[in-house]
Amino acid sequence: MELGVIGLGRMGRIVVDRVLEAGHEVVVFDIDEKSVADAAEAGAQPASSIADLAAKLGSEKRIWLMVPAGDPVDAALDELAPSLDDDDIVVDGGNSYFEDSVRRAESTDAAYLDCGTSGGPAGAELGFSLMVGGPQWAYDELVPVFDAVATGPDGHDRMGPAGSGHYVKMVHNGVEYALMQTYGEGFELLANGRYDLDLESVANTWNNGAVIRSWLLELCEEAFREEGNDLGDVADRVEGGSTGTWTVQEALEQEVPIPLIYQSLAERFGSRADDGRFSRRLASRLRYGFGRHDVPRRT
Length: 299
Ligand SMILES: NC(=O)C1=CN([C@@H]2O[C@H](COP(=O)(O)OP(=O)(O)OC[C@H]3O[C@@H](n4cnc5c(N)ncnc54)[C@H](O)[C@@H]3O)[C@@H](O)[C@H]2O)C=CC1
Ligand SMILES: O=C(CO)[C@H](O)[C@H](O)COP(=O)(O)O
Description:
Elements: E1 2-6, H1 12-21, E2 25-29, H2 33-41, E3 45-46, H3 50-57, E4 62-65, H4 71-80, E5 89-92, H5 98-107, E6 111-118, E7 129-133, H6 136-141, H7 143-149, E8 156-160, H8 164-192, H9 199-207, H10 215-227, H11 242-254, H12 259-271, H13 278-291
Parallel strand pairs: 1-2, 1-4, 2-3, 4-5, 5-6, 7-8
Antiparallel strand pairs: 6-7
Bound molecules: 1,4-dihydronicotinamide adenine dinucleotide and ribulose-5-phosphate.
């Protein structure tokens, strides 16, 4: 198969590498020329613009967008629009708001797949977990690409119609916020409690057989190993928040109580007052662990 990939940052580049590795051909574009040159060196065919990428793909285009959510997705779709028709397929693998994806699916001539992507840059070696919404035929057609980008055939599935992939990913991120918050609180109590504990050792011990073992807990272990028992200069400031905000807004609309997820989001907002809470400093460092997001540091 031949796949066009637009957006070659932390995530898009992994899509390119994994699809190439599986033996497919890849045409790439990014507004950053160096990213295009780097991907070309890895074996992809470079394009000089989105129109050029579409032209290089010929008929029955399969295109994966991995650009930041919001305006960049609409900008890319606007540029693609003159080249698309109903036997083409566009995948949005970013963290788009699900209602935007429904709108885009309705207004794009191509079949549109909204694909929630989990695993982060740090998960590249294993492959991602992909939650896909949109037409069944388009999902079926792209199974070889999803097999390559995901952990394998079990790492992806069609969730339902347009919007459902990004909806499931939105809720996934709400869960992610709450898990990070609860690990943060537990370690904050241990850090300030009765015993002088080695927190890397605690995390390691928990990761070996404990009920609460998980990848996020492995990333806690990594954070203590790399930053030190007191998290060094990691600041009490947790960035991000859009996907958690959408989750809470949706829960309010559906009248579903999700107090833990709401409280985790509130903690992030509270962190912007910078009063030095350990739990939030750990949450911030974990965002680097899985997503390679910048860690604000104490000055
Ligand atoms: N980093 C993470 O842990 C995860 C990120 N995501 C989502 O994946 C998407 C991409 O994220 P990252 O790769 O982390 O971001 P990134 O900032 O590392 O890369 C984005 C890339 O898109 C390019 N770009 C921006 N506008 C463009 C346009 N109009 N045309 C072509 N290229 C354009 C940028 O130059 C950059 O190379 C986002 O929606 C993000 O929320 C999803 C799951 C995990
Ligand atoms: O989707 C992700 C992980 O699953 C991304 O890392 C995302 O950026 C995290 O969300 P936020 O920026 O709101 O913390």
